[in-house]
Amino acid sequence: MAKVCFQLQVKPERLAEYRERHGAVWPEMLKAIAEAGRRNYSLFLRPDGLLIGYYETDDDAAAQRALDNDPRTARWEAEMSDFFISLDGRADQSAQRLDEVFNLEEQLARL
């Protein structure tokens, strides 16, 4: 299983709308994410717009390809693109990945 964490920056003037839009994501987009193989997907938003996302998947490259080829994703990402600062391309493709440096369960298993 792959655990993926990423970072984006939401424009300060769009924070309220970003929160609102993610309070009721389109059902077809939710299905596209699940069908692509992403699960346990969460987004965390700081008051200054720092966005941290996390999800798990069995094959991240396959999940990304599935979303890249899904018209539901293209429509959602087109609507979301203006929410972000310094974004090159779609948010799901351009987000900065973060490396995991600590995992409690893995370290406990080594004891």
Overview of this protein structure:
- By secondary structure, this protein is α+β, with helices and mostly antiparallel strands.
- The chain has a single domain, classed as Alpha-Beta Plaits (2-Layer Sandwich), CATH 3.30.70.100.
- 43% of the residues lie in helices and 23% in strands.
- It has 6 helices and 4 strands; from the N terminus they run βααββαααβα.
- The chain has helices at 15-23, 27-36, 60-68, 71-80, 91-94, 104-109; strands at 2-9, 39-45, 50-57, 96-98.
- It has a 4-stranded antiparallel sheet with strand order 2-3-1-4, with no helix packed on it.
- A hairpin with a 4-residue loop joins strand 2 and strand 3 (50-57).
- Helix 2 (27-36) runs antiparallel to helix 3.
- The longest helix has 10 residues, at 27-36.
In round numbers, the mean pLDDT is: 93
In the CATH hierarchy, the architecture is 2-Layer Sandwich
Number of domains: 1
Q: Which structural class should the secondary elements be placed in?
A: alpha+beta
Strand residue percentage: 15-25%
Which stretches are poorly predicted, pLDDT < 50 over at least 5 residues? none
* Widest β-sheet, arrangement of strands: 2-3-1-4
Shape designation: globular
Question: Could you tell me the radius of gyration in angstroms?
Answer: 15 Å
Task: Encode the helix/strand succession as letters.
Answer: EHHEEHHHEH
Q: According to CATH, what is the topology?
A: Alpha-Beta Plaits
Number of DSSP helical runs: 6
In whole angstroms, the N-to-C terminal distance is 22 Å
CATH class: Alpha Beta
Helix content: 40-55%
Largest sheet: 4 strands, antiparallel
